Amino acid sequence: MIGGNDEHFPEDSELRKRIKESNLKSILIQSEMERNDELFSRNCIFCRKVFTGNRIQLFDHLTTCHNLNVGHPDNIVNCKQFLDLLDQKLTQLQCLYCEKTFKSWQILKEHMRKKGHKLLNPNNREYDKFYLINYLSPEKHWQEVKLESDKYEDNNCDENDWNDWCEESDQQNQCICLFCDFCSQFNELKQHLLQTHKFDFDSIILKLDFYLRIKLINYIRRSIHEKRCHKCEESFAYCDDLIVHLDFSGHIIEVPEKSQYDLPEYFFSTYENDNLLHFLDNENDDNEEENKD
Known about the structure:
This protein has 13 helices and four strands. By secondary structure, the chain is mainly alpha-helical. It has two domains: 10-170, no CATH class; 175-292, no CATH class. The strands form two sheets. Strands 1-2 form a two-stranded antiparallel sheet. Strands 3-4 form a two-stranded antiparallel ribbon. The radius of gyration is 21 Å and the shape is elongated.
């Protein structure tokens, strides 16, 4: 029987861990295949324009032309099923956010535009299986991941509709520093990393693609946990000695060789439910747009 206290049933805990790792490996294979698929072909779910080649073209179109931002394409898995589900809802004249049904396509479009409802229902767990980050940390709701980056994006949205949701999310989205026990909201954590540790999160982490961001964060987490420098891999007996080494050598702000962290094992979190992983989606795209401007 599966269940009970891990202390009394260690074999159950080990079995659950193996099942989780097996599921993650299979979903990563599927995600990688979809990410590199150049034979993708699909109609836009709004205007029916046909997109062929890599799926990123369709998702960029949905964001720029229809203001529907469902997250970074690299964070989406089982893409065709995901789009089929959205298409089915729209075909049934159902709003993607409030899920109310309307009498005509024109009325539905006007409703979604005026209400700012061009986003997914935060309470619909049907979407969980389509977000890669959920497999890395299954306790986290997919919409909590996306909330921080989208929270104030749509100015047409009624502020009263979001107050409770935002307050709850702010309390849950605390992130722990990579090098010490400091814990705060994501933007405040980035300031702490820069001011205290001289670690520029944007230029060091977010310049990488989505997969490498995850691996590098998990690699640094594990290195610090094992009291080992993430750059030169020198080991220390005490955490304080490691921090002194990182500061004195300057290794704290240096990126390790790609061969050190670009390994399948670093898809797995060092800590359960590491909230920092949930803010790797979309951040790089925002920075690239700012640089273009």
